[in-house]
Give the backbone structure.
Amino acid sequence: MGDEALKKKTQETAKKLFGKGIKMDPPYKTWKAFDRELANDFSLFITGKLYSRTVLTLKERQMAACAMLAALRARDELKLHVNAALNVGCAPEKIAELFFQMATYTGMPAVNEALEVYREVLVERVQWPMKQGK
């Protein structure tokens, strides 16, 4: 893939993931403040090459990212990726279930924190309260 095609793929994928919902600065802006060239390289790789692969769908990638970030208790990144998960069509009740599933492996403090972050995102997106499943 040529440079221009990769840039276009990066922009398209970023728009799908981060184009709507909550308003927060993506990590890219922080990276860019320190090293513009390296920030661009990270963005092209992460969003243009990794996230645009088709082995996993964007929904599957976002569910995996949410689980890992919640387990790491990385609140800001989790907020960004929960929003992205909703943007690419992950079902809200499945995201909540994902966080409950973590209880056995990460403990309830991580579950509670993930649910708090998730609620913040839903409030900002005017999707709170969530509809209760059966």
